[in-house]
Amino acid sequence: MSGNHYRATADPAAALAIVRLPRSERLQYLVTAVQRMAVLLRKYDSPGPTTSLGSAQEQLHAVVDALSERVIVAGLLDPPAKKLGNMLVNLETLEPEPYPQGYWRAVARNIQLTADQKAAFKLCWASVKPNKAALTEQHRRLSARLETLQLQQQQASCKEQRGIEQQLDVIIEKLKMQHFCMFLQFYNVLTYKQLAGTYVDAWPFVPDAFSVCEAMDELDWQ
Prior knowledge:
It is built from 8 helices and 2 strands.
């Protein structure tokens, strides 16, 4: 579905409306969209009668386009604290929840990439993986230093603490952008059917493109 998401920021008023949506409405929209995808996927390859809403393929494409527009606008325009706020949330309980161990391996296996798609993902992953590793290590070292300063509780260290906190905020923003880059790759490379299938397979979580590619890497891209 390459190219379809470039309309996401074409209408400033529509983009602003998406950014202003509260978290509860964003999550409920996701729930409804994934539920519709699950129904339409079952009919996707069927030549059944077309309703006033269009064929199952046309309806699924519309659902994916609308959802991808929201995801991309939010990823580009949300303030740092709000960015990627749908991750690590169970869409059934609407509460934060860590991913179960090995959760994304089954999702990764089910995508069934073509050779060209696999090559595109591997190229992007080759850049994102070391960048995230470096940022994660910086975050670990700075967090350790901040903890030491907080334990010391010395007035002279307050300025250094504020500096470290600002650096940590920058690193977190960069890490979020690494995840968002992988999201964009999903929307650029996967077909409508593959992308919808990934959302359904990831349920009750939102597909974490970084975690899926990490699982593909662990599976040696098989």
